[in-house]
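Recall the central idea of this unit: under ordinary conditions, the amino acid sequence of a chain determines the structure it adopts. In this exercise we apply that idea directly, starting from the sequence alone.
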Amino acid sequence: MVTLKNEKVWLYDNHKVILDSENNERNITPEQAKAGTMTAEIFATHNESGTADNLKLKFDSLTSHDLTYVGVIQTAKASGLEKFPVPYVLTNCHNSLCAVGGTLNDDDHVFGLTAAKKYGGISVPANQAVIHQYMREMMAGCGKMVLGTDSHTRYGALGCMGIGEGGGEVVKQLLSNTYDMKSPEVIMIYLEGKLRPGVGPQDVSLAIIREVFANGFLKNKVMEFVGPGVNGLSMDFRNGIDIMTTETTCLSSIWITDEKVQEYYQIHQRPEEYKELKPQNVALYDGMVHIDLSKVECMIALPFHPSNAYTIKELQENLDEILEKTEKAAQKQISNPNLKLNLRSKVKDGHLYVDQAEIAGCAGGMYENIQAAKQILQGCELTSEYFALNIYPASTPIYSKMLDDGSAKALTQSGAIIKPAFCGPCFGAGDVPAHDSLSIRHTTRNFPNREGSKPGDGQLASVALMDARSIAATALNGGRLTAATELDFTEPEVTYTFDPLPYKRVYNGFQSPQAKEALKLGPNITEWPEMVALKDDILLKVASVIKDDVTTTDELIPSGDASTYRSNPKKMSEFTLSRRDPQYVSTAKEMLELEEERRLVEKNSKTTLTSELIELISKVAPEKDMSTFVKNTGFGSVVYAVKPGDGSAREQAASCQKVLGGLANIAVEYATKRYRSNLVNWGILPFTADKSVMDQLNRNDYIYIKDIRTQLQNNVKTSDAIVISEDGTTKTIKLYLNDIAPEEKEVLLEGSLINFYKNV
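Accordingly, the structure predicted from this sequence is:
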């Protein structure tokens, strides 16, 4: 159903596909044909660099939710922010139902509203809409670009290119600077055929993700959806597939537009936002993913990643084998050795039973998904056992329509629970299942502990991803795993109407900033701690060595209750790696305390070295003059991970390391551009190294790198780093700083993006 072509691919007249190796019809140059993609057209209208190879992009609008906007605005304010230059939408959808932390959630919401008033922004009250549904309904436009501090910033099906990044990149836009990168590769996603009844958008997404994640086929590239299969998909189906493209590790996505897209904008009372988008008569791509929609089956992604996907039929036919394989792979990612993932305990009479089901968020909570679930459950009653089905419409206009058409009542009478618009079930801030439970969810991710369990407290639950249709079929059968294609089901024909009235409380102050408005700071909202410029030399303490194939941002900084302290950098940093490596924080703090002592001595606030400083310097650099060493050397911690940064765009994955004194990461490669960008924006050196280095590093080792500042200034890419083990033995390893752009270099030298803007 999904095949990959890893070579240049030509598209003629939007339907004829020819591999580069077989193309004898070339009548234009490859450079001209590359400019024929929709991606190239959109980049060209947003690029200020004057060259298509090195992009400097400005976006039409920006968006953040209440996990990230406080940090963004605080950083921008510290860097000289006066007003928002483009529409900036602040939604309150990630921490709107949590009770953890007392007043902290609503304190942030009040801060967001006052910031929207002061700087001229748009504030969406809690439970009005999840971030991406609001952007679809109210902000997306054909040919436009949106930058958001959420990884699932994807509106490609609406002809709008969305990119999810860390807060630092939005700060740059707020200060009227650009988003800089080399022009990415563009991959054709060619759709043909028609989906069978019962197969939904999540099934298509999971089928793609399992084929492209491990091999990095789409990593940091743009997905361009074309082909005759597009026309047979409704807009909710297209949006549902598109939002999940993040899990391929792509950079962004864009789709051809047609009369269905035009109708979408008409329904949402913004017809002026439509325009036709399609490749030019000849377009050249860097590869192709070919999808025969007629062969896509109902899918399930087992713990702990969306790419761990199987057809439900395949799982049912090989149940014990696949569950055992999943348990063994998952065990490597469980930090508490006393806990075991036991999916096989969920098998009864040869069938897999689940404990909870969720249809929610930007991927699941769309109108057509919910209507399909309603039709499957019509006239039936859910089991009275533990199993529960929770449904979260993605926006109040969708919920309002459900009240009008009676579907909210029908679902409630079947036993489903209808809840307000909220992203919590996707990242562990709502509907956390019981210990040892398996939850099936039409949401975006099923990373370890993302559902909210805490291994350090002896808790372990897990999530499998499925489409709303198969979730409803499973609910119909009392929690027994069931593909929707096993039922006599036909996709309901529905007519959606959009009522904007529920958005009447949205504050829109764009182009009307009120400079005298005071920001309201709750007791948890604090400023960033001092960050110093990169020193001549650095001494790093290895605080964590993670040997997993991939490390997600959810593991680097957990979501859920940890996110309550998102506006208090020091408090939130206490949760760093807490569910993956509980020793990390204490180890990093040991080095941070020595760095703080070093700064006092450097500033002459203290005239003598502590015994701890003397002992450390004597151990790692006995031949050095101690006062000179203290003046020239920055002390910090370093995390080693094979491939860190898959998943969320939350910059806290990097900023929390920085708050704890982190100065560097070492990786074989970085999972996403956005995580590497987050590291750079917080002044954390993004080293890479050969995989053999992993076996040469242990927690509490020290790494000394001389002349790192000079090397960075002179674009030296290779550093000889001396590793000092706990027993005093030394060895030298090679660390690399590759592809450091000029502005990135300046940010790293200054020690953070905040410092960079202060000193410009």
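The first strand starts at residue 2 and ends at 5.
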